[in-house]
Amino acid sequence: MSAGSHSRARRAVAAMVAMVMALAPCAVVPQTLPELGDPSGALLSLAQERRLGESVVRDIRLSGAYLDDPEVNAYLNELGNRLVTAVADAPFDFEFFAVNDPSVNAFALPGGYVGVNTGLILLTQTESELAAVLAHEISHVTQHHIARSISNQKDAMLATLAALAAAIVAARAGGSSSSQIANAAMSSAQGLAMQMQIDFTRQNEQEADRLGFQRLDAAGFDVTGMATFMERLQRAGRFVEGTAPSYLRDHPVTYERIAEAQARAQGKAFRQVKDSLDFNMVRALVKSYQGTPKDAIVFFEDALVEKRYNEPVAARYGLVAALLRAQDFKRAQAELDVLEKSAPPHPMIEAMAGQVLMQSGKLKEAIARYQAALARYPTKRQLIYDYPEALLKDNQPAKAAAFLSDELSLYPSDGPLQLLAARAYAALGKQTLAHHHQAEYYAWLGNLNAAVTQYELAVKAGDADFYQASVAESRLRALRQEVVDQKKRVSQGGPG
After folding, report:
1. Residue 97 pairs with which residues in a beta bridge?
2. Which of 14, 47, 13 is nearest to 29 (CA)?
3. How many domains does the chain have?
4. Which residues constitute the domain of residue 206?
5. Is residue 343 within a helix (H) or strand (E), and if so which, with residue range?
């Protein structure tokens, strides 16, 4: 065997080794026997899945892509959890959130997190279509598809290792064709590995379609929503310049998938499902954020004049939101008065009314409005955030801090509440508590280094009682360890 042949064979084997390493799972995890029917159990525990998903959500928050809108996120959670509880198979508490991105996409993360782009919310025309997307994504989570994908990569790696052995034998055998044999073995293994991954992805989508349909039906939605959204998505893809919608790339829509969704729907009795007012109002709110404030105002003005809407109350609500964005407070109040005469009592309208008053400087009126609204809707997130905001603007930090303390006892992991509490305690001159809550906000945001800095300041502030000081020191130790663990994960190629 010539030196050149030896060199080519070695290069082929080296390339094969590199490919095997690329196919290997990115994180090293303990190997244990899986439960029958659940290949994910051998790779990621439920706690590991939750930590992985939580880490990605923190990255999304830190990047600025997370849509920090309590109305939109509260609606997605209400809709999503209606689907989750319809079938008793959820291994996690789910969290649904919006991503401020006009592209059409939605995605599932391990551990019960589901993200939905604003572009997808606007593309859906019925609540059942949006529910169909969420049901599909929920099924990706309940079936542990990401963990199963890691398992699949392991199988592909074993197939590639077999081909690597053949390449090594060929390299040792000698002869002028040895490097060609090694290259052929490598190409064959690479093709096999790629096909296994494609097949596995297709299986994931088929399984999520099937189980998502069952969930959609169990939750009482129109089961034709899955097929109609797929068709709408496919049509949208034909007219997009450049690339297709992101959702099409992540979830390829084929005529076969559409036909299967239609066939499932035909097997069910017809069910007419009216869209909720919340669905139409959330879509209007998201639309009010699109383009310039003037563009949004014109859109809703034209829609109301031409009666081009699914729900007139939602269209008027969208106009008020657009006027508020443009800081045209006088007209926003006038349109709000018209809205309240035609709309049923609704927490989103109460919150909008409070915002119009607060942003126009009528703080006493806003506070009174929020107090009355909270008495009727005590769990409404937008109201819970806006009321202490109005109190802080009206120089009532003690009252704001008392309210926030009560809410944080119920929702300790709520980042926006932590930030409001930090502002309230800073206004009161309580430095330990101000740094404590600022640190917890940074931790929620995913900025662990900033959280550590804030807790270091809390420990040094010197105005804490024994309990507050102990909490600050304990959390500082925990966060420092979390920073170390995060650096280790990143160095191993995993998410932060």
Report:
1. 115
2. 47
3. 2
4. 40-266
5. none
